[in-house]
Amino acid sequence: MVTWIMWGTLLVIWFSFLFILSFLIDKRRRMLFGVTVPSDCMEDPEVLEFINRYQKRKKRFTMLGLIFTFPIIYFDNFAWVYSYFNVYLVLFFVWLYWIIYQGNRQMKSIKSAQGWRVGEKQAVYVDTKLSKEDKSEKQPKLFWLIPALFLSFEPLLSQHPLLQSAAWLMIGTSIFLCLLAVIVMIKLKRTSPKVYTGDTGTDQKINDTWKARWMTLTLILTYYFILFNNVIHRFITGSGGDIGMGFTVVIIMGSVLPLVPLLIMHRMRVKMVEDLRQDRELLEVDEDDYWIGGIIYYNPNVKKTFVSTRIGIGSSVNFGTTAGKWLLGGSVILTLGLILGSWAFVVAEEFVDPKILWDEEAMYIQSLAYSDEIAYESIQEVTTIEELGNTTKTNGTATADYARGSFNVRSYGKSRVYVFRETPIILVIHLEDLTVFYNEPTEEATLAVLDELHRRLEDREDRGTE
Amino acid sequence: MLLKISFESPTPIYQQIRDQIILAMAKEALLPGENLPTVRQLAKDIGVNPMTINKAYNLLKDEGYVVIDRRQGARIQDAGLLKNEKTEYLIEALELILSEAKLKGVTKEELSKVILRIYGKRRD
């Protein structure tokens, strides 16, 4: 099951690579590989040959990208599955960046050789009338709906026991989302107006319209992610159904669906500029030299931290500012840390088995991520079963070979599980409010643990009667 | 008025702002008494340090083109007050520029167009 989920995730990643590639030749924005070009350049033989070469590279990348998602299905060990997943991710990301970087360099040299000029080079236009506009009075009407928006989901919370850490995590995340929406709205309100035509009235109208649209979208996305947060909570607490189904829902809700309104906004903006360009000459700026490889924006001349991205949708960070360096460096370190950290953990978890330590009063089960101390006096009964049966994971790891962590086990309820699935015997240690499932990689070793446990329980009873 | 700041130009940014405000005043894109954007706002919109804008505004103030009020910020000087200032140094500078223009082949017609662009719409 996990293998199929990881394969599905690779397909989503492969699809997102294709999505990025679709922005490399953007005729409507007059942009080739992140380089601004005049509209008539598309008929230039050198450009046509360049596009032709790229189409071949794209086809190769697409095909190999898809083919190399399949080998993951043949691994039955989770550590290998996860290792393959990470190697795929790194290699194909580097390959994608290389395609974009090379294309950007070639396109820049074609543009320079042809002497094409698109707008003022490395300049910025500011309309002082737009700058003077009093922004403090323009409070967005929807701004005050944000707290109400959080409360509107409150009834959904009531069905969960609030003392559960997952519920608190969910409430915390929802509050964080609301605060984030407030910050985004304030930022949007204070965004510097963009000069399109140089005509104050027209530019003001365009800026006001787009600010209002972005604010509404922020609100809709905040609503959406609070709902999404609720869905995640339902799945991790086991009330949302099968975990595989949950993963699919979370992937679609978390990645594909929120992209749709962003894509629509992007298309609308491109169309607006296209229509405007047909009416009059726009005040355009050539910022090619600030874009390294068409992806990384480096402009130490200005203090702006975010700029509109060239390849794809949304914003890019200005690497030339201190904040930009921290943001970019921080996110790279965080991503690498998460990938390498989780990778090391998964591999170690696969190869380091849980172990039991004994002392006079309690037994200790220790694995890499989870541990339990079980006092002999708290044990009500010890039984054995042949297999685990239906489980729902609340916080743990479940692979084809083993299950470890907190689970809800059918007919037992809240449980801690340290089980090798292939071993035909599992010890069931019944405690007052928890059941612990444990076995060793072999039946003999598991029976030895059972004997040891019985011996220690009897010793304790003997000591009690003396 | 529309400010165009070029980061490629060898002219410092504060000088570009100062020059363009004077040009806009002459072309009546900025009128006497009109407020300029605040230092912080203009710095944010251009994306530069507020000190750069402050320097441009102070230069314009020293040259008498703008007045800076603590509450209202920077605003364009009244035309009447500007005209009382000495202009001999400008005529001298203009003579030099016109001489350079003549030597480098700028025609009378081209110069006339520039003069008309600046003086053409003036009410006086």
Major sheet details of chain A: 6 strands, mixed
**How are the strands of the largest sheet of chain A arranged?**
14-18-19-17-16-15
- For the secondary structure, the number of strands of chain A is 19
Shape of chain B: globular
Pick out the low-confidence regions of chain B.
none
What pair of chains forms the biggest interface? A-B, 22 and 21 residues
Proportion of residues in extended strands of chain A: 15-25%
Number of helices of chain B: 6
Helical fraction of chain A equals 40-55%
Radius of gyration of chain B: 16 Å
Order of helices and strands of chain A: HEEEHHEEHHHHHHEEEEEHEEEEEEEEEH
Radius of gyration of chain A: 29 Å
Based on helices, strands and strand pairing, what is the structural class of chain A?
alpha+beta
How many strands in all of chain B? 3
Task: Give the biggest sheet of chain B.
Answer: 2 strands, antiparallel
Strand content of chain B: 5-15%
What do the pLDDT scores of chain B average to? 87
Measured between the Cα atoms of the first and last residue of chain B, the distance is 21 Å
SSE order of chain B in H/E notation? EHHHEEHHH
Low-confidence stretches of chain A: none
What structural class do you assign from the helix and strand content of chain B? Answer: mainly alpha
